[in-house]
Structures are given as C-alpha cells and as structure tokens.
Amino acid sequence: MDETAGARIDSRLGSRVDPLVDPEREAMAPDPTRDLLLAWLGSKRRHVRTQVAEMTPHDRRAARLPSGWTPLGLVQHLTRDVETYWFAHALAGEDVDLPVGHAGWEVAEDADDVALLAAYDHACVHSDEVVRTLDLDDPPARPTGVPYASVHEVLLHVLVETATHAGHLDAVRELADGHQRLVLDAPDEG
Q1: Cβ contacts of residue 51 below 8 Å, gap of 6+?
Q2: What is the DSSP letter of 145?
Q3: What value does the mean pLDDT of the chain take?
C-alpha cells in the first residue's frame, strides 16, 4: 500500500500531513471560541515548525542554552508531552505511550529530522480532531494531576505552552544564525 495515499503535502514546510478521521467521533457544532483558540494554536504551532524547519541540521541538534535542550528535542517534547499527552491522552482518553521524566526531550542521534517534524504535524492534526469532537466545557476524560477542569482550560494551557516554546525557539534561532523574527502574529485561518 502506498504510504502517501490520502496524505497531503504541506509545501510550505516540506512534510507529509496525514488526515486523521476517526469514524467513532463526530465533530461538534461550530463554536466560535473553540475555533478561534484552535486558530491561534495553529499559528503558534506553525511558528515552532517554521523556526525549526529553517534551521540548519546542525543547529536543530545543537544545545544553545545551559539547560541543554535542542530545537528537535523541543519539537519532540511538544509532540509527546504536550499534544499527545493533553489532547489524545487527557482529553480523548486514548491509551498512548507517554515519555517518563525528561525522555520527551531526548532525541536519538539517528532520529530523522523530517520524521520528527512530521510526527509533530501528525500529532497536531489529531489534536485538532479531538478538540473538535468536544465541547469546551467538557471535563478531561482522564485525570491529569493538575486543576484543569475543562477542554477550554487544557486548550488555553497548550496554547500558552506552545507560544512560550515558540519564543524560546526565537531566541535560540537568533543565537544560532542571527535571524530575528519580528512578526505580529495572526490566527491561522480554518
């Protein structure tokens, strides 16, 4: 079977994005607040993705700050510890393989950059599908150990965390190659 069947190519970022449609879940009626939050989250995800995609392969794997994280490690963290944990696991109640401790930040030497970025894209598409099947007032399907009582609160948490990490990448990118991102963001169009 052709692995690219049904996939679309995101030419701006150079990776394959698989559509995820779970026949067991149906999208909720349109909700302007949910749609706006998802649009802003999409903008921050694109910010992260673009900053990392435009770095050299060396800079993607180089730690520039004393804490030792790398841009690819940050992408893997956002994929596994943020998108997968909060949306697939906590909100949808899916059984997923979650990293322990800081393992979500640790990228194997032989890991493929394109595959790591594609995994992030894939997780983001799935996360959006999950959120679109839930009401903002719905509680998480699984306890999270933090006081987020609703989809709305989880979505805000992920938006803030992703935006924060996008800012981290701005600083690291400037240290790496001098590029300064001085852009007033707008939400992605749905």
Answers
A1: 71, 166, 169, 170, 173, 181
A2: S
A3: 87
Rounded CA-CA distance 187/91 in Å is 23
Number of domains forming the structure of the chain: 1
Q: What is the pLDDT of residues 32-59, one digit of tens each?
A: 999 999 999 999 999 999 999 999 999 9
- What is the model's pLDDT at position 25? 59
Owning domain of residue 127 = 36-177
Give the pTM.
0.84
Cα Rg, the chain, nearest whole Å: 16
Q: How many angstroms separate the CA atoms of 91 and 88, rounded?
A: 6
Q: Is 9 helix (H, G, I), strand (E, B) or coil?
A: strand
CATH classification at residue 53: 1.20.120.450
Cα–Cα distance for residue pair 56/23, rounded to 1 Å: 40
How many Cβ atoms are within 10 Å of 163's Cβ, its own excluded? 17
